[in-house]
Design brief:
By secondary structure, the protein is an alpha/beta fold. It is built from 10 helices and 13 strands. The longest helix has 24 residues. About 6% of the residues have low confidence.
């Protein structure tokens, strides 16, 4: 596959600088999630407790029975009331991102390409994992190959991953070549490389989801906590009314008259069926499902991550 020119930076492809800047969003996400109650489903793994934890959380008034070693003498001196420190105990875990760079992800009618949205969300999650002391890894799927990075707790590995994401986002899909790797094949490989107890986040539009792929994902769910991030474009949900569309994948061309109600209805029903398929799969896998649009602002995307407890 060829690479794009630089005129579409931020819209049709990501840059390393743009992904580096997502560290600030990750910090904002961590601040908002700081006092969220830990749950297995949300993937949160911090336990707030008194005593010698790894990270300071806050100070609160002293209660009888609190460990005297955790006294916050500065706050006690300032307020005149005894205060004790509250800590968060960090439990390191592997976080594995599965990123979909198949041709259908290089599309948008509003906002940014789905692939760009995916890269930016992946960068936020990568930075958050590193800041939380977790090991971060990834499996990137293009039309015909995988790129695998084993989970590691290293800033250099995060930077390496961000560079790979930026590089993959600049690829121009070759629609003349049939994809050699299906979702089922890719998720089977993912299942072989993940460690039990991992947090796995799959970012995709989940096109070409079939029974075999669903079976592989259910197997993954037996050994990992799953989050599905479904990325779509408004055009994929509903066709505009009363217009003539010219569509092309670079090789083939199609004229579509959306004034015909039957065409719009069939298109809408296909999308609803796909959306319901993804939602049902998430339920079967006891997974978080985050639905993101290319038209969403950065603030809206961050709110959706926060709402899912990611």
């Amino acid at each position: 596959m060829k690479q794009r020119d630089t005129s579409g930076a931020g819209l049709v492809f990501s840059t390393l600088d743009s992904l580096l800047s997502q560290q600030q969003s990750a910090r904002m996400l961590m601040q908002k999630n700081r006092y969220r109650k830990a749950t297995k489903q949300a993937g949160n793994h911090q336990v707030r407790q008194l005593g010698r934890g790894m990270e300071f959380a806050e100070s609160r008034p002293y209660s009888p029975g609190d460990d005297i070693r955790s006294m916050d003498w500065k706050v006690t001196a300032r307020t005149g009331e005894p205060h004790t420190k509250l800590f968060e105990e960090e439990r390191e875990r592997p976080v594995l991102l599965w990123c979909d760079f198949r041709p259908s992800m290089f599309f948008a009618t509003r906002g940014q390409f789905k692939s760009v949205v995916m890269c930016e969300l992946s960068a936020i999650l990568s930075w958050k994992s590193w800041l939380s002391g977790d090991r971060i890894g990834a499996l990137l799927l293009s039309g015909s190959e995988h790129m695998e990075m084993r989970p590691a707790r290293s800033k250099s590995k995060v930077l390496q991953l961000l560079q790979r994401l930026a590089d993959y986002s600049m690829l121009i899909p070759d629609f003349s070549v049939k994809a050699d790797v299906s979702l089922a094949d890719s998720w089977q490989r993912l299942r072989r490389v993940l460690s039990p107890g991992s947090q796995v986040v799959l970012l995709s539009d989940f096109r070409s989801l079939d029974a075999e792929a669903e079976q592989q994902l259910r197997r993954i769910a037996r050994h990992a906590n799953l989050t599905l991030v479904a990325i779509t474009d408004p055009f994929e949900h509903q066709l505009p009314e009363k217009t003539q569309l010219k569509l092309s994948d670079g090789l083939r061309f199609l004229r579509l008259n959306t004034a015909k109600a039957g065409i719009r209805k069939d298109y809408r029903e296909r999308d609803l069926s796909h959306t319901e398929q993804v939602r049902q799969l998430a339920m079967q896998c006891h997974a978080n499902l985050i639905e993101v649009s290319t038209a969403d602002s950065e603030q809206v995307r961050l709110a959706k991550l926060r709402g899912a407890g990611v």
